[in-house]
From TrEMBL:
<feature type="binding site">
    <location>
        <begin position="80"/>
        <end position="81"/>
    </location>
    <ligand>
        <name>pyridoxal 5'-phosphate</name>
    </ligand>
</feature>
<feature type="binding site">
    <location>
        <position position="197"/>
    </location>
    <ligand>
        <name>pyridoxal 5'-phosphate</name>
    </ligand>
</feature>
<dbReference type="InterPro" id="IPR015421">
    <property type="entry name" value="PyrdxlP-dep_Trfase_major"/>
</dbReference>
<keyword id="KW-0028">Amino-acid biosynthesis</keyword>
<dbReference type="GO" id="GO:0005737">
    <property type="term" value="C:cytoplasm"/>
</dbReference>
<comment type="function">
    <text>Catalyzes the reversible conversion of 3-phosphohydroxypyruvate to phosphoserine and of 3-hydroxy-2-oxo-4-phosphonooxybutanoate to phosphohydroxythreonine.</text>
</comment>
<feature type="binding site">
    <location>
        <position position="174"/>
    </location>
    <ligand>
        <name>pyridoxal 5'-phosphate</name>
    </ligand>
</feature>
<feature type="binding site">
    <location>
        <position position="104"/>
    </location>
    <ligand>
        <name>pyridoxal 5'-phosphate</name>
    </ligand>
</feature>
<dbReference type="GO" id="GO:0006564">
    <property type="term" value="P:L-serine biosynthetic process"/>
</dbReference>
<dbReference type="GO" id="GO:0019265">
    <property type="term" value="P:glycine biosynthetic process, by transamination of glyoxylate"/>
</dbReference>
<keyword id="KW-0663">Pyridoxal phosphate</keyword>
<feature type="binding site">
    <location>
        <position position="150"/>
    </location>
    <ligand>
        <name>pyridoxal 5'-phosphate</name>
    </ligand>
</feature>
<keyword id="KW-0963">Cytoplasm</keyword>
<dbReference type="GO" id="GO:0008615">
    <property type="term" value="P:pyridoxine biosynthetic process"/>
</dbReference>
<dbReference type="GO" id="GO:0004760">
    <property type="term" value="F:L-serine-pyruvate transaminase activity"/>
</dbReference>
<feature type="binding site">
    <location>
        <position position="46"/>
    </location>
    <ligand>
        <name>L-glutamate</name>
    </ligand>
</feature>
<dbReference type="InterPro" id="IPR000192">
    <property type="entry name" value="Aminotrans_V_dom"/>
</dbReference>
Length: 380
């Protein structure tokens, strides 16, 4: 028989959404839909009102990431998972080296392995709970890894592989759950790409990339090469980075985007920049993550899954529970009390909690969550 536990209202977070993606959407973003949506929803994305919205997103992200000279903000349809295939078609010349240390960092490498016009990728693997950046690899023209492995709560540095510049190799960083939550110097990479359903508090189905001049030049040169007679490379229009670049320069996307996603994204960017930009956002996430790690370390039944302090993510926190405590029962009890999306990544298969601490999440609500977990565990 499953025991029912009711958490007192006084202990509960004011907002109990802790998803690792989709993540919490702020009420101000919903109001923005109501206020701006009447003029924008259901209208053409190629007309001035929506293009002005896209322009504000590109400009706001340029400010947020302190865009280096020559770098551009580019948007496209399909989410970050679509960008993996797009990069195979439009950014990797012949051979890429990958860091693989969780479900999501492995998937990009799998896409490259399936591309018939690319050489087999070189994969540098690490066990979940740690990371491995690819090493200098002969004949590689792209180095790829995830800044934040969403499945395990591991954060990896963003820096160019030594010797990669002499190769004229690109550095491609999957920042889906890292962008806006973790510090970054985008000059250290050529494509820093993400979806807006994490730190940027919007819905999925859109990808955003910070592209260097080298990445833009590569996209154009591969597009030209694909047109040559006998070329094995196939770049369908949906996976053409050149097309995405040219459309973004017109403040639009190739295909019709979800306008609601754009409205919520624009509001979130304005909120982040208005509060202090990347420095403020990353400090806020670090505060929330620190609360969880300190609580777990002091607990007699919980512990951080990632052992190395420097590797622990400040975007997605993973906490192992003692085997005597059934994490599934804890998670179900929390959900029964309206505290949602604390489950560990299913394929990891651990007795674990996984908690998104993106900037929209109030640090005080993270503190309240720890008290709620303690309350539940004591009574199960």
């Amino acid at each position: 028989m499953v025991k029912t536990v009711t958490i007192p209202e006084s202990l509960r977070p004011s907002d109990a959404r802790f998803g690792s993606g989709p993540s919490k959407i702020r009420s101000e973003q919903i109001r923005a839909l109501d206020e701006a949506g009447g003029a924008l929803l259901g209208t053409s994305h190629r007309q001035p009102p929506v293009r002005k919205l896209v322009a504000s997103i590109r400009e706001g992200l340029g400010d947020f990431f302190s865009l280096p000279a020559g770098y551009e903000i580019v948007l496209g349809n399909g989410g970050a998972s679509a960008f993996w295939d797009l990069a195979c078609a439009s950014l990797i010349g012949r051979r890429a080296a990958f860091g693989s240390y969780g479900s999501f960092s492995a998937k990009f490498a799998q896409s490259a392995a399936l591309a018939p016009f690319l050489d087999d990728p070189v994969i540098y693997e690490a066990e979940p709970g740690s990371y491995r950046i690819p090493e200098y690899t002969e004949h590689a023209d792209a180095y790829c890894w995830a800044q934040n492995e969403t499945s395990t709560g591991v954060a990896a540095p963003v820096r160019r592989v030594e010797g990669s510049s002499e190769q004229e190799a690109l550095t491609l960083i999957d920042a889906t759950s890292g962008a806006g939550a973790l510090p970054v110097d985008v000059s250290q990479c050529d494509a820093y790409y993400f979806s807006p359903q994490k730190a940027f508090g919007s819905d999925g189905g859109l990808w955003v990339a910070v592209l260097s001049p080298a990445a833009i030049e590569r996209a154009y040169s591969l597009a030209d090469a694909a047109k040559q007679t006998g070329s094995p490379r196939w770049i369908p229009p949906f996976l053409s980075l050149r097309s995405a670049i040219e459309n973004s320069r017109k403040d639009q996307t190739l295909n019709t985007p979800a306008i609601a996603t754009l409205i919520m994204l624009a509001e979130q960017i304005g909120w982040l920049n208005g509060n202090g930009g990347l420095a403020w956002s990353t400090a806020r996430c670090a505060r929330s993550a620190g609360t969880l790690y300190q609580w777990a370390q002091a607990s007699d039944y919980a512990a951080p899954f990632v052992s190395d302090l420097q590797t622990r993510s400040n975007a997605v926190v993973t906490i192992d529970l003692d085997d005597a405590i059934d994490a599934k029962q804890v998670i179900a009890t929390l959900r029964g009390n309206g505290i949602v999306d604390t489950a560990g990544y299913r394929k990891l298969g651990r007795n674990q909690l996984r908690i998104g601490v993106f900037p929209s999440v109030e640090p005080d609500d993270v503190e309240a969550l720890t008290h709620c977990i303690d309350y539940v565990v004591e009574r199960l």
